[in-house]
Structures are given as C-alpha cells and as structure tokens.
Amino acid sequence: MMALKSLVEGTASAPVLVLDAPISFWGGIDYLTGLIQDRSHPQNGKSIAGTCLVVSNIRGSGGTPGVLADTLRRGCGPAAIVIGYPDINTMTGIVVANRLYGSVFPMLLATPEQRAALVTGVRAVIDKDGSLALG
Amino acid sequence: MKLTVEEQAMADGRRGPVLEFAIDLLTKAGAMHGAERFEPIEAAYVNTTFATVQPLHDLLVWLAGNRAQVTVPTYTNVGIDDPDNPMLRTDDYGRWATQQSRELRDLHKQVGCKLAMTCAPYQLPGAPGLGAQIAVSESNAVSYFNSVVGARTLKYGDFIDMAAALAGRVPFVGLHTADGRRATLHLDVAPLPDALAGDDLSYQLIGHAMGRKAGMELPALTGVNPGASPENLRGISATGASAGGVAMFHAVGLIPEASTLAAATGGNDVGTGNISAADILAARNEMTAFSQGAIDAVVIGTPHAPLSEVGMLADLVDGRAVKDGLPFYIQMNRFVLESARAKGWIDVLRKAGATPVADTCLYWRPQAHGLEGRVMTNSGKYAYYAPGELPVTTAIASLRECVESAVRGEVWNDPELDFRP
Predict the structure, then answer these.
(1) Which of B21, B54, B160 is closest, CB to CB, to A99?
(2) Contacts of B171 in chain A (CB under 8 A)
C-alpha cells in the first residue's frame, strides 16, 4: 500500500501502464480509440484505455482538458492517472469529465520512487484518500 | 488556500452548482501552483469556442442550463464559422463543424460572453492596460498582454479560463505577481541588416529563435530595434509562444516593465545567451519548406492582423491582381474589419482578389477552401502550426514577398531581405 497525494479524488481498479516518455493528449492520443498515435513516442500504438496510466508528465497545451475529457466521455480514456508533476490542464480535464459525465476518475501525484514501484500489467486499486494497493 | 467568506460560500455550494464547480477547479489549480489566496480579475478571454471538441459543447450546455453568468467582461476566441464567408468550409465535416460553432457561439452569449471571436483581443477598444489582472488562454494573447501591454495573466487552458470568468478570480501566483514576472534569462539580439531589421518579418524570426532558446525561462531581450512598434512586438510574442511556449518576455527599453535590464531581472543574476544572425537565418530556414516555384495559397493574419497591417496590405495590392484562382486570405477581428472597411481598404483588397476573413482561424481543421499544397504566409505562428493540421507545407515571407508571389503565382524572393551572416 502506497500513500500518494490525491489531486482529484476518485476510485479505480485497473492494470498499470507505465509510459516511458511524457505524452500529449492534444494530437498524441487518438481520442476515438485511446491508442497512442504520436509516432515519436516509444509506446506508439499501445492503448491507454482502461489503464492506470503512470507518467512523469502530460505535455501539452491549453487544449489538453478538452481532449482528455473527450476520451473519458467515450470510455476510451484511462481509468486513473498517476503523474509525477501537478499539471493543471490534466487536472482540469478530469474534474470537468467527472462533473459532466458522472465519472469518479482519480488523479494522483507520485514521487519518482513511488512511480518506480509501479510495473506495467500489475493491477492497481486506488481509494478515495489517494492510497494505492497493488494486487 | 485561504478563502474569503464569499469564496467559502461558493465552495460550500451556497452560490449554486456552477460557482461550486468553478471555485473547486480554481482551488485545485491554486493548490497545485502553491497559491495562498485568490486575486480578482478585470476581464477574461476564453478558448472554449473550439467547436470540434464535444466536452466544450457539453460544458456550455450545462452552464447555460444552470443559468450561469460570467461575472467579469469575458471575450471569446475564434470559432469555425465566418458568417461573411459561408463558402469557406463546405465539405461534410466543414458544414457539421460550422453548425457546431454557431451553437457554441449562442451558448457563450447565453452565459454572458462578448462574442469577440478573435485570437487578438488586445486590439479591441477598452482592452486591459498596465498592471491589470486578467485570465487569458490563447497563447499569443497571453504573451502579448503580459509582454507588450503589461497586463498580468498565466497561460490558462480550456475550462479553467471559463471557471475564472465565472468566479471572477484566479489563484494569485506566477505571472500575476511582481516576483513571478522577473526575467530569468538575458538574450542579446544581434544587429541585423537594415532592410530586414525594418521589416516585420525580422520580429517573426526573433520570436521563433527566442522560443527555441527560452526553454522554461522568462527571457529579457536586449538589442531589439528601438523603433519596434507594438504591432512588431506582436510578432515576437506570437512566434515565441508557438515555437517555445513563452508566456512572457521583456523587450528591454521598449515596454513599461523593462526600462532597463536590471528592471527586467529585478537585479537578480540571470543566465545569458544571444540570438545571433545565424539563429535568425536558422529560424527562417526552419519555417521555409520551399523557396521557389509555384504556390497554392497565401494566408495573412495569424494571429488576427492589426489595422496597420491591413492598411499596408491594401497599399501593396492596390491596382494589382492576385493570380486567378489563387486563394489569398487575410484574417482579422471584426472591429479591425469594420475600421478597415471605413477606410476603403476592404474594397481595395477584394478588388485585388484577396478575401478578408473574420471570426475564425485558417490553420484549424476543418480545412478552408483551397488550403492545401504550398502556402505562403507572413506569420511565424501559421508557418509553425499549419503543416501539423492541414495538408500543407509553408514558407514564411515578408508581407511584400507574399503579395508579389501571389500576383505571380510563384515564389518571389525580395533580394533586399536576403542575407548571409
């Protein structure tokens, strides 16, 4: 069990996907499918849909929130985001999607050590207080 | 964050679901930035008019359904629809997006926004002045307001701009504070040949080079032509924002907050670097995918052209004719359009075969009529973004080069602007 800092409260139980490089939602993710479409990304072609997405940062622009919220609306977005940097636009997209579409999608801030303990494929169970259990 | 009684009432839901949502978003953002309190704003400039992103539409429907009203003067960025040019985007996707854009515009009106439909709101009468606290999302406007006007804003984004407009306040951090506006990097701009230094093109190139060098720093530029107009500095702010995400720069000696380098840095020791003539040439090369041969279209006015540029263009095309069938667009906001019309310039432009466009942006999909192939532009921002959005390659050029090339239908290079460092 790890105690992470909760940036947006929510719950999730989802397989971890650790991204090896930051990603941009605006242009970097196909919002119809959840596939990484940024050709320069090392995990190009992988799907973020339904994952507990672990990433150092979300790159990007003021357009991030709209696209992120759209993936959540369509059900092809991640189930949770564990991030290394408190990105405002990512937070905003999640808060708006939770408001508009009734989701309980969490966003957690994690130290590099905490992120290192998360391995692709392992199931993460996230509670409302920001605690994360691997199972 | 420390909340006032009124802010606490919003947070508790006693001011309704809209303000509860808005203050929640702003409080989370403030906590993430390390803000201790909110600061009232005088105006907001929202980007929530992007018609092809469904959640923007859904949020505005929710706001209008809850009878939300913005509490400060709030101006909208561009949409897809230009009512004066119904044939601009006429394929299936274009017609759908145009209709969405109209609906979104009506929803913004319902929540009390002013339908400015421009990415250059600093050109509107009554725009905020030195020291004004504002909330802006559009990247070129963020940098222009901060750097040229001396108003204060962070670079906001979708939704949070609208939250600020509804709550009338923002977290008091970063570029909103005096400390957050101090330069952290000094870049000295090398002297350029007179002809180039006197042309607006040079500012587009300086901005691009600055964007490439600034990283996360807040640059102070020395060596900028002391005769630079606010419209010229707009070239630096727009391309610095597109090529490098720069939200503010100091043009030392040219703006109120940076009378001297020491005033810009607050006397702090900062890193130093330069923008050499070679960097300027590299910026031009980077934005030049073709330098000879036929062209397919010309686009002026990204961000929306100031009145002075519309006047210069009218002078250049007066009595000339753009090559038959070659799309030549000039984008501007409606206030500038009406001012230019009153001066007779719009008639001159139309007679020469140029198409004035308002309320929209021509690097956005859906693709506007004729924007494919080789597009020439005097805008570094257009040259940078359009190839990622549209089936085009771009070449940056001076306004005169754009006109001469449009008349010929092929690239014309001004020998006076040619230089080798």
Answers:
(1) B21
(2) none
pTM (2 decimals)?
Answer: 0.95
With CB atoms and an 8 Å threshold, state whether A63 touches B29. Answer: no
Look at residue A40 in the predicted model and tell me its pLDDT. Answer: 84
> What Rg value do the Cα atoms of chain B yield, rounded?
22
Crossing angle for the helix pair B307-317 and B399-408, to the nearest 10 degrees: 40
- Tell me, yes or no, whether A9 lies in a domain: no
For B254, residues 6+ apart whose C-beta sits below 8 A from its C-beta are B224, B226, B228, B233
Query: What is the pLDDT at residue A24?
Result: 87
Per-residue model confidence (pLDDT) at position B100: 93
Please name the amino acid found at residue B140: N
Query: Does the pLDDT at position B421 exceed 80?
Result: no
Whether residue B145 contacts residue B151, with contact meaning beta carbons closer than 8 Å, is answered with yes
Using DSSP's 3-state secondary structure scheme, residue A123 falls into strand
Do B336 and B307 touch, CB atoms closer than 8 A?
yes
d(CA B121, CA B115): 11
pLDDT tens digit sequence for B330-372: 999 999 999 999 999 999 999 999 999 999 999 988 999 999 9
Omega within 30 of 0 (cis) for the link into B17: no
DSSP B83: T
The H-or-E segment that residue B63 falls in is helix B54-65
CATH of domain B297-414: 3.30.499.10
The domains of chain B are located at 5-179, 182-286, 297-414
pLDDT of residue A63: 82
What range defines the domain where residue A47 resides? Answer: 14-105
Q: Name the minimum distance, in Å, from the CA of B238 to any CA of chain A.
A: 15
- Report chain A residues whose CB lies below 8 A from the CB of B55: 65-66, 69-70, 73, 93, 96-97, 100
Cα separation, A98 vs A73, in Å, equals 9
Residue B254 near residue B228 (C-beta atoms within 8 A): yes
Whole-angstrom CA distances from B108 to A62, A99, B128, B145, B165 are: 18, 19, 21, 23, 12
The C-alpha atoms of residue B285 and residue B282 are separated, in whole angstroms, by 5
Q: To which residue do tokens 């750097």 refer?
A: B147
Statement: residue B53 has pLDDT above 90: no
Q: Is residue A6 part of a domain?
A: no
Which architecture characterizes domain B5-179 according to CATH? 2-Layer Sandwich (3.30)
Q: Tokens for B185? A: 């990097």
Amino acid at residue number B259: S
Six token digits for residue A23: 């990603």
Q: Which residues sit opposite B142 in a β-bridge? A: none
- Separation CA B332–CA B342 (nearest Å): 15
Residues from chain B contacting residue A65 (CB–CB below 8 Å): 55, 157-160
Please give the angle made by the CA atoms of B65, B71 and B75, to the nearest 5 degrees: 85
Nearest by CB: A92 against B33, B138, B160? B160
Distance CA B348, CA B365 (A): 29
Q: Is the pLDDT of residue B213 over 80?
A: yes
